[in-house]
Amino acid sequence: MPNGTVTGPPDGKPSTGAPIDVELMRETAARLLAEDAELPSLEEVETLTLRLRGMIMVAIPDVEILIGKFPKDDIPATCARACIGEARMRLRLEPGGNLPQQVAHAQRLARSVRALAEHHVNLGAEHE
Questions:
Q1: What phi and psi values does residue 2 have, to the nearest 5 degrees?
Q2: What pLDDT, in 10s, does the model give residues 62-109?
Q3: Domain ranges of the chain
Q4: Any alpha helices (H) in 37-98, and if so which ranges?
Q5: Which among 68, 56, 54, 33 has a CA at the least distance from the CA of 112?
């Protein structure tokens, strides 16, 4: 564009490239957070941690776009902003060296994934 103006996608839906699969996010988080969740192996927890980190990195920009549609004092948007801050903080943390510490770290990431998925829905994102 000659004047350097950036426009959104033609259909007006938020998009940062990869679509958010809310159901997959919920299912992945439940793998670690369900009451009857089994303790994952070291390999499984490493894989889940990477998957959860990726989900957070994809979800944050989309939730931020949704937040931008609300006034600064909107309570659901404010809660979503806090969730994003916490998720970013969790992305900076490193898991401990043993399995229980790695599982606890992955569970914290899973809580952020679950919360981001809920904010995505609550702020009005359309889902298939």
A1: -65, -35
A2: 999 999 999 999 999 999 999 999 999 999 999 888 999 999 999 999
A3: 22-122
A4: 42-67, 75-92
A5: 56
